[in-house]
Amino acid sequence: MVAQSPKKIHLPKTSESESLQKIRHTASHVMAMAVQKLFPKAQVTIGPWIENGFYYDFDSPEPFTEKDLKAIKKEMAKIIRRQLPVIREQVSREEAEQRIKAIAEPYKLEILNDIKEEPITIYHLGDQWWDLCAGPHLESTSQLNPDAIALESVAGAYWRGDETKAQLQRIYGTAWESPEQLVEYQRRKEEALRRDHRKIGKELGLFIFSDLVGPGLPLWTPKGTVLRSTLESFLQKEQLKRGYLPVVTPHIARVDLFKMSGHWQKYHEDMFPMMAESQDAKEHEQGFVMKPMNCPFHIQIYKSELRSYRELPMRLAEFGTVYRYEQSGELGGLTRVRGFTVDDSHLFVTPEQLDDEFLKVVDLILSVFESLRLKNFKARLSFRDPDSDKYIGSDDAWEKAQGAIRRAVETLGMNYFEGIGEAAFYGPKLDFIFQDALDREWQLGTVQVDYNLPERFDLEYVADDGTRKRPVMIHRAPFGSLERLIGILIEEYAGDFPVWLAPLQVRLLAVGDEFLPFAKQVVEQMQAIGIRAEVDLSGDRLGKLIRNAEKDKIPVMGVVGAKEVESNSLSIRARIRNEAGNIQSQDVGSLSVAEVLERLKQANETHGNF
RNA sequence: GCCGAUGUGGCUCAGUGGUAGAGCACUCGAUUCGUAAUCGAGCGGUCGCGGGUUCAAAUCCCGCCAUCGGCUCCA
Predict the structure, then answer these.
(1) How far apart are CA A375 and CA A370, in angstroms?
(2) What pTM was estimated for this model as a whole?
(3) What is the ipTM of this complex?
(4) In this structure, are residues A383 and A345 in contact, taking their beta carbons and an 8 Å threshold?
(5) Does domain A203-493 have CATH number 3.40.50.280?
(6) CATH 1.10.10.60 is held by the domain A506-606
(7) How far apart are CA A500 and CA A604, in angstroms?
(8) Strand B bases, protein C-beta under 7 A
(9) Which 3 state secondary structure label does DSSP give A13?
(10) Which of residues 93-152 of A touch strand B (CB under 7 A)?
(11) A14-188 domain in CATH 3.30.980.10?
(12) Which residues of A spanning 404-423 put their CB closer than 7 angstroms to strand B?
């Protein structure tokens, strides 16, 4: 059955709609006025529109709770009903300063100091309330519809986004052109929640967390492990085709290794504490640490022999599990964990090979995304912040590395944006950014150019003229991490994996117990050619078996009864993705066992549909 | 780490001061059944953990742990 959506409601983005910008600017001012009415001690700071609404940050001696939102919303409705005109006024810097001082709002003064242009614009709500604001705004509060506004949540937020500064109270709200849009927005949010990988991962039994094991440390169940290994072997195969060399390295190493790499100095707070045999060893920093990255290990393998230019590029690859002591408040599902597996590789190349090799890596990454049907991503040039001291190496090395990345994206004609301050401590990156079901952004794939670690580890190769030269390193991971990738994939597919990735590809459902032997025999044939299949042995009625298989999102169901045994066939029901990307369960009809085997084999090889 | 919220059987949830309940799942029995739930019975919970208040705590208070939404930080 096809669900008919009654009327498609378009939800505009704030950045694309001046009308929404006005609504949300004005709504945030009305909210701030309401808050100051109810909490006279609250001071206002900033309150911009965001893609789906707006927020406003307050410095309040008493924190707001979710219960307060109701009262604030009520107060907002009152303000709206008073039909206050929104008046724009231009004043001189001095005038603005005086007025701020008159109402004792120190944050506004700081904001004023940041505004470069003059005159300063102030927006008034009638003669009741005003704030510095660039606008645009509605003409009157009466143009807001209280039924198209919702206050969503409260959160702590640091002043200026700086954790050393005051913690403010942020209220998130959303406002729309009509109540219908608000309802649609809320409906979509609920729908997004249904795609949440934490929910689906639990339902499908892919991974678990245990309080005893610890936060941010996922445990992979048999089904989840099948999914992981399918992804791993897919990439492994692609890498072998491209001359990568597999390696395996330990999970821990002496602190000294990470002192040499610079991790101990620049990455210390992201690392689990050192293990040391004795207090004395600890004091002398003579212990072991869990690895937060694989690069220093791969470097040791490179360095274990004198390398010739003939060996380069040398591409050492490992699914290496790393451990990072992420702040507790950062952890969440599979997208942010403390132990994760990087599909890591370090390429040691001559400076002349760098550009070409970089392009090959980007090509691999894009083809991996294509195989996974991942289309919605952004490319970010993650460069260093020249004013920060969190990086190692010379300006020259950074210029060269950043130049190489820029050349690559220009050559490819890729769309990209720049993230200053987003570089790794040892080098700049080209990152591929995806969104989760709640529109949060996550970095998956990454390619990094590194002149610094070869320097720190004194890496060399013998050039064709017999001299010793320094290689350049490329760090790269198409998946980024298996954990985060799987989190994103689950949400992308809403749990309905393409046949080649589905942990269980086929389940056979017997109409009666007497058909189980035939079903078992067909499953054995499937397993023999690498198809993941099982028989439902629960003995329930067919309707129930189908319901369970649908709930488990198994791509192919094969019903077995007298007819099928007779003709060595299966009555196939399959979950098939339509053009719009929605999964529909379809009766494919009766197919011979041979035909089913062939189709599944094809799906596995081509990553296509059943 | 910071601000706020939440934590009841494997899962989803009800229970707000009087000593724990439902549905699903699981086990057993009956049913042998053709495309999204057959019927019945049974098993299962130190109500996140620790302390306190009270004659009495899942319920009120304090601390801790975990999860969720943000902030900050990152694959």
Answers:
(1) 7
(2) 0.94
(3) 0.94
(4) no
(5) no
(6) no
(7) 5
(8) 1-5, 11-12, 25-26, 31-38, 65-75
(9) coil
(10) none
(11) yes
(12) 422
